[in-house]
C-alpha cells in the first residue's frame, strides 16, 4: 500500500517543479543602477551574455533582493547544459538565501540519487526532510501575489517528505543484516514517529528481533510500540501468536486475542486498502485470535469458554483445512467433556469431511462418542 502511494509521490515530484517555473520574482527599483542591470538581464537573449551579466550582478550587488531569482536563472541555464556540479552549487546558494526552498532541496536529492552514492543520498534525504518540515509548519506569506507559489511549495514539501519516508522504508527493507536493520528502524521511528509506514514497520521491528533470537526483547518492543499505536492489529496478532507459541503466558494470549476481536469489530478499512484485502486480513486475524483463545481455554479445561471461542473461529477458518480440522476436533472434544454428546458427534463428523491431520483422531472420537453415549449411526 505505502509503496504504491509513494511511487505516485515520485511522479508528482518529477512533475511539480514545472509548475514552479516562476519560483522567484525580480525585485528592483527600475531607476537604480541595479534595476537597470536586472532589466538588461531579463531582456538578454544570448545565454552566455546572460550568464556574464548575472555574475556581474553578484559582484556589484551582493545584497540584491533579487539574489535568489538570479541564482535560479543561472541554475536553469546550467541544468540545460547538464552541468551537475554547477547546479549543485547554485541549489546550495539558493538555500542560503531561502532556507525554505524545497524545490532546491529536492533537486539536490535527485542529483544524489543519480550519483548512487549512499552517503550523499543520506545527507540529501536529511536535508529534504528538514526543509519540508520547516515549510509545512511555517506561516503562509501575507503577500497575496505569492499565495499560489506558496501553495505549490507546501504541496511539494508534503510530497517530498513522503518520498523521503519511502526511501527510508525501502532502505530498511533492503538491508539484510538484522542488527543494521534495527539501527535504521530506530533512526526512522525517532525522526518520523507518525509516519504512514508505521503499520508495516512496527511488526517488522518485532520480527527482526525475533530473527536475532531475542524473543524477550521482541515482545517488550512490541508492547512498548502498542502503547503508541493501541489499535495496530498486526502488533496485537504478533504478540498473541508469540505468547501462544511460548506456552507460558495464557493470560496474555487471552488478553491480546480479546483485543484483536474488539479492535477489528469496529475498525474501518484503512485508506488505500481494497475492501477485499481488508476483509481477507480481518478474516485471517479473527480466525487466528478466536482459535488461539479457544485452544488456550481448552488447555485450561475451561470447556464452555473454549466452545464459545472456537465457534466464533469457525466461519473465519473454513478456507484453511488444517486449522478448520483442528477447530472442529477441539469443538468435538470440548463438547464431549461438557457431556454435549450430540454436538460433540456433529463436530467430530464434520471434521471427517475435512482433509487435515485430524482425520484419524476424529474417526476415533466418533466411535468413542457413539459407544459411550449409545448414539445411533
| Structure classification | mainly alpha
Q: Report the uncertain regions.
A: 1-22
**Total beta strand runs:** 0
Strand count, sense and barrel status of the largest sheet are: none
String of helices and strands: HHHHHHHHHHHHHHHHHH
CATH class descriptor name of the domain at 2-137 and 147-174? Mainly Alpha
Mean pLDDT over the residues: 88
Q: What general outline do the C-alpha atoms trace?
A: rod-shaped
The helix fraction, in percent, is over 70%
Oligomer: single chain
Q: What is the number of helical segments per DSSP (H or I, 4+ residues)?
A: 18
Terminal Cα span: 52 Å
Rg calculated over all Cα atoms: 32 Å
Strand content: under 5%
Enter the CATH topology name of the domain at 2-137 and 147-174.
Serine Threonine Protein Phosphatase 5, Tetratricopeptide repeat
Reported CATH architecture of the domain at 2-137 and 147-174: Alpha Horseshoe
Amino acid at each position: 500500500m505505502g509503496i504504491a502511494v509513494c511511487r505516485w509521490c515520485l511522479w508528482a515530484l518529477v512533475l511539480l517543479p514545472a509548475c514552479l517555473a516562476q519560483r522567484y520574482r525580480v525585485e528592483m527599483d527600475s531607476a537604480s543602477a541595479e534595476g537597470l542591470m536586472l532589466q538588461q538581464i531579463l531582456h538578454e537573449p544570448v545565454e552566455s551574455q546572460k550568464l556574464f551579466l548575472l555574475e556581474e550582478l553578484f559582484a556589484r550587488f551582493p545584497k540584491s533582493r533579487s539574489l535568489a531569482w538570479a541564482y535560479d536563472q543561472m541554475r536553469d541555464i546550467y541544468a540545460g547544459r547538464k552541468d551537475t556540479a554547477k547546479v549543485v552549487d547554485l541549489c546550495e546558494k539558493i538555500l542560503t538565501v531561502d532556507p525554505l526552498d524545497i524545490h532546491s532541496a529536492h533537486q539536490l536529492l535527485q542529483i544524489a540519487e543519480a550519483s548512487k552514492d549512499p552517503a550523499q543520498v543520506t545527507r540529501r534525504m536529511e536535508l529534504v526532510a528538514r526543509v519540508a518540515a520547516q515549510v509545512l509548519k511555517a506561516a503562509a506569506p501575507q503577500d497575496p501575489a505569492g499565495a499560489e507559489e506558496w501553495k505549490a511549495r507546501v504541496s511539494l514539501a508534503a510530497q517530498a517528505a513522503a518520498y523521503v519516508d519511502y526511501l527510508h522504508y525501502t532502505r530498511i527493507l533492503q538491508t539484510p543484516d538484522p542488527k543494521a536493520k534495527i539501527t535504521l528502524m530506530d533512526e526512522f521511528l525517532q525522526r518520523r514517529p507518525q509516519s504512514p509506514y508505521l503499520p508495516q514497520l512496527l511488526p517488522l521491528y518485532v520480527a527482526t528481533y525475533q530473527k536475532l533470537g531475542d524473543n524477550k526483547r521482541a515482545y517488550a518492543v512490541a508492547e512498548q510500540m502498542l502503547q503508541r499505536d493501541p489499535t495496530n492489529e498486526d502488533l496485537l496478532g504478533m504478540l498473541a501468536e508469540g505468547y501462544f507459541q511460548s506456552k507460558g503466558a495464557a493470560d496474555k494470549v487471552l488478553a491480546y486475542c480479546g483485543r484483536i476481536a474488539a479492535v477489528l469489530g469496529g475498525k474501518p478499512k484503512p485508506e488505500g486498502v481494497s475492501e477485499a484485502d481488508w476483509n481477507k486480513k480481518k478474516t485471517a486475524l479473527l480466525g487466528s485470535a478466536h482459535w488461539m483463545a479457544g485452544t488456550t481455554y481448552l488447555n485450561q479445561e475451561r470447556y464452555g469458554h473454549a466452545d464459545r471461542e472456537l465457534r466464533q473461529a469457525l466461519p473465519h477458518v473454513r478456507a484453511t483445512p488444517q486449522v478448520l480440522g483442528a477447530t472442529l476436533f477441539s469443538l468435538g472434544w470440548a463438547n464431549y467433556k461438557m457431556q454435549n454428546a450430540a454436538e460433540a458427534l456433529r463436530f467430530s463428523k464434520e471434521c471427517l469431511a475435512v482433509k487435515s491431520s485430524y482425520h484419524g483422531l476424529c474417526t476415533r472420537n466418533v466411535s468413542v462418542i457413539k459407544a459411550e453415549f449409545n448414539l445411533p449411526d
